[in-house]
Amino acid sequence: MVYTLTVHLYANDHPDSIPRIKAKLIEAARIYRKDKETIDWLVMQDVFDPRAFTIVERFENESSQKYHLENPYWKTFDPYVVPLLDKKMDLRRHEELDTSQDVVVPV
After folding, report:
1. CA 22 to CA 26: how far, in whole Å?
2. Integer Cα distance of 74 and 89 in angstroms
3. How far apart are CA 50 and CA 73, in angstroms?
4. In angstroms, rounded to a whole number, what is the distance separating the alpha carbons of residues 98 and 107?
5. Is the pLDDT score of 1 beyond 90?
6. CA dihedral angle for residue 80, residue 83, residue 88, residue 90, rounded to 10 degrees
7. Is 13:87 a contact under the CB 8 Å cutoff?
8. Among the four residues 13, 25, 34, 56, which has the most C-beta atoms within 10 Å?
9. Which residues fall in a coiled-coil region (predicted)?
């Protein structure tokens, strides 16, 4: 079962916050995608609210996060990003549903 984290970030209203967050997220994605047992590390910006960003972290399983947390880059992320935010990051943990087989939807 694929283990997925979604993290929602909301930039503060300082004019430099949006481009700084965007650059850091792109940098992080390029680094974290290379971590062992990481399926993908996606970053996105809301099309209606440019201050809103989302990270989708996909791992082979829950224990795969250890490689992510052991990456030296991880220690640089929060100290850089947190001061640029208007509110705390909203982190949610998910197990992806298996969509590889047909299902019967109850009436």
Report:
1. 6
2. 15
3. 25
4. 21
5. no
6. -30
7. no
8. 25
9. none
For 78, the token pair is: 């929060």
pTM for the structure as a whole: 0.93
pLDDT (0 to 100) of residue 42: 98
Answer for the pair 5, 94: CB distance below 8 angstroms, yes or no. yes
Q: Which of 23, 75, 80 is nearest to 53 (CA)?
A: 23
- What are the residue boundaries of the structural domains of the chain, listed by start? 3-95
CATH class (in words) of the domain with range 3-95: alpha beta
* Euclidean distance between the first and the last CA atom of the chain, given in angstroms as a whole number: 27
Whole-number Å distance between alpha carbons of 76 and 92: 21
pLDDT value, residue 100? 93
Looking at every residue in the chain, the average pLDDT score rounds to 96
**Tokens matching residue 27:** 């940098």
pLDDT bucket at 37, cuts 50 / 70 / 90: very high
Measured distance CA(78)–CA(93) in Å, rounded: 18
> Tokens in use for 37?
């047992």
